[in-house]
Design goal:
Rossmann fold; 4-stranded antiparallel β-sheet; 7-stranded mixed β-sheet; 312 residues; single chain; Alpha-Beta Plaits; 14 strands
Length: 312
């Protein structure tokens, strides 16, 4: 769940607390159900391993006692009373957040906002991604892990780019990985997402980064899309999602990956890596990247085995 609060109105009331992930998500669900969409924005993010910060942005006045009662009903009295309220004067939240996002380097790739457009070294591939409602600005350990994996794959490919002509970015978010693959490997990329807003944002970002001709973005729920069926088998697949959907996709994903094709899995906590590997046991682990408590796995499908019948 990735919400981004809009520009704040004058004297906006916020409520914030830090707790474990399960409690954070229970409070988010409980409070969100009690308000109309236009009355509330929610930010939820992991601040340190195992600790999550939840911030509610209320449009106008809010009955603090009611909000606290909702929190207590969701996670109990001790945790619910930790909710802290604050009034914030008007500011441009988007501009303020962009100033705090510094360029992130991952191998040859540098992900940056528009305000740092001129800071990319000449020998690097700059990818401009603004903070948005879709997930993936390059600052999270999962996205950086995928970019580092892609950088290593680019080095392995060298000038043999024709050996990897079919690329899929599953759950593309802002499109950062699809754009990086298109520019790093100079190949066409199919990018998909279940969220229509993410599809729109990824298309906009592909145009912004001058690779719209190479990045085709479409809406898809998992692997159920005509474009995926037509494009398969893929030589490289990115799946930066979460453990549960990655487990569900293990068997169908194997059917759309070419022999010797690679799958880059991410969205995994370090403690979940072995569980993911068990689901993808028919693939070979090629590389593991651990960053900030998150793990990225680079897997490879074995070559097809041809069995010759003995002549009688």
């Amino acid at each position: 769940m990735n919400y981004a609060p809009p520009g704040l109105a004058p004297d906006t009331t916020t409520a914030m607390f830090i707790t474990d992930e399960q409690s954070a998500r229970r409070v988010v669900d409980c409070v969100a159900d009690a308000f109309f969409a236009g009355e509330l924005a929610i930010s939820i993010a992991e601040v340190v391993h195992g600790q999550w910060r939840v911030t509610f942005y209320f449009d106008g006045e809010i009955d603090q006692a009611t909000a606290r009662e909702l929190a207590i009903a969701a996670v109990g009295a001790k945790k619910g009373r930790a909710l802290r309220f604050e009034r914030i004067a008007a500011k441009d939240w988007v501009a303020d957040s962009l100033r705090e996002l510094k360029p992130i380097a991952a191998g040859r790739f540098v992900v940056h906002g528009g305000h740092d457009r001129g800071c990319v070294p000449a020998n690097r591939i700059g990818i401009e991604i603004e903070a948005a409602l879709a997930f993936g600005t390059g600052h999270h350990g999962t996205t950086r892990g995928c970019l580092l994996a892609l950088d290593a794959i680019c080095k392995l490919q060298g000038n043999r780019r024709a050996a990897m002509p079919r690329i899929l970015d599953l759950g593309t978010g802002t499109g950062v990985l699809a754009i990086a693959a298109a520019r790093g490997l100079r190949q066409r990329v199919l990018a998909t997402d279940i969220d229509p807003q993410a599809v729109r944002i990824a298309r906009d970002n592909a145009r912004l980064n001058r690779c719209a001709a190479l990045v085709h973005v479409c809406r898809a729920d998992g692997l159920a899309a005509p474009d995926i069926r037509v494009g398969a088998p893929f030589d490289l697949v990115f799946a930066n999602i979460l453990l549960a959907p990655l487990q569900q996709l293990a068997a169908p994903l194997r059917k759309v990956v070419a022999p010797r094709g690679r799958v880059v899995l991410s969205g995994l906590l370090k403690s979940q890596a072995n569980t993911a590997l068990a689901a993808y046991r028919k693939f070979t682990l090629e590389r593991r990247i651990d960053l900030d408590g998150w793990t990225t796995l680079v897997l490879r499908r074995p070559a097809a085995v041809v069995r010759n019948r003995a002549c009688s």
